[in-house]
Amino acid sequence: MKNIPLILSIFLLFGCSTKPQTAAVPPPPSLPVASVVAENQTTYQDYPASVEGTTNVEVRPQVSGALDKVFVDEGAFVNAGQPIFKINDQPYRAALNNALAALHGAEASLGNAQLEVDKLTPLVANKVVSDYQLKTAKAAYQVAKANIESAKANVSTAQINLGYTLIKAPVNGYIGRLLKKQGSLVSPQDAEALTQLSDVHNVHVYFSLGEKDFIRFKEQNPGKNLAEKLKLMPAVTLLLADGSEYARKGKIDVIDGQFDKTTGAITLRADFANPQGLLRA
268: burial class by Cβ within 10 Å (0-12, 13-18, 19+)? Predict the structure, then answer.
C-alpha cells in the first residue's frame, strides 16, 4: 500500500466580542472603522494515508502441479473469468480417465446384478430355488447401485480437479506481483499466493486521527450523531506523491468502531472514484 497525504476539510467558526467600558473617556479622533463579523472559515489538515482497492483477492492454486503457463504480466488488467495461469493437467486427465473407467465397470456390474435378479425371480416363484438366493441377488444389486453413485462422485471430483488446472481471474482487476514463474511447482499449501488481484475502479483511502483530533472532528462538524456528521461532512482531497491534487474528491464513509490500543488513533475511510486507474493499491 502507498502512503499518500490526505487533506481533510474541517469547518471552524471564529468570532470576537467586546467588553463594556468601565469609565468615561474622551471620544477618539474620527478614524475609519470596520465591523467584525463572525463567519465560517475552512482550515486544512494533512494526514498520511494508504490506498486499497475495493476488492483485493489472493489468487491461489486449488491443486498441486507444475506451472505450465503464465498468460498475463504484472500490472495487466484482466476481466473476471480470464485465464491467468495453467497447471500441468496430465495427471488430472489420467485421474479423470481412471474414474470414467471405474464408472463404466460399475455400470456393467449393475447390469449383471439386475440380470441375476431377473433370472432368480421366476425360479423362486416356481420354488425351483430358495428365496435366500433371490435376497442375496437383490442385495448384490443394491451394492452395485451404490457403487455407481460412488463412481459418479469420483468422476465429478476428477473433473473439478482438472478444471482447477486452469486458473482464471475471480474478479476484474489489476495483476500484482507474479510470485511464481513458469515451471515452478505450486500447491494449495504454499505460503505465498500466485499473485494478488486488485479492483481499483474505486479505491478506499485509509487514514487515522488521534483522540484529540477525533474529538474536534465530532464537535466541529454538524449533525446529531456520527452517521449524520459523516453524511454532512465536506469532501476530502487526496495529494499525490508529486504534491499535486488528485482530480476527484473523496467522501469519508466509514469510521472504525474503536481506537487502536497501541497508537491511540482511530481509522477513517474515504472512497474515491478511480476510473482511469491512476491510484493503485
Answer: buried
Phi-psi region of 254 (alpha: psi -120 to 50; beta: other; left: phi over 0): beta
> How do residues 6-39 score in pLDDT, each as one tens digit?
554 433 333 334 444 455 566 666 666 666 666 6
Which DSSP string corresponds to 58-118? EE--SS-EEEEEE---TT-EE-TT-EEEEE--HHHHHHHHHHHHHHHHHHHHHHHHHHHHH
Report whether CATH 3.30.420.10 matches the domain 90-164.
no
Report domain extents, the chain. 3-14+30-85+174-273, 90-164
How far is residue 256 from each of residues 9, 43, 173, 208, 270, measured CA to CA in Å? 19, 24, 26, 9, 12
Output the pTM of the full model.
Answer: 0.68
User: Taking a C-beta distance cutoff of 8 angstroms, is the pair 204, 54 a contact?
Assistant: yes
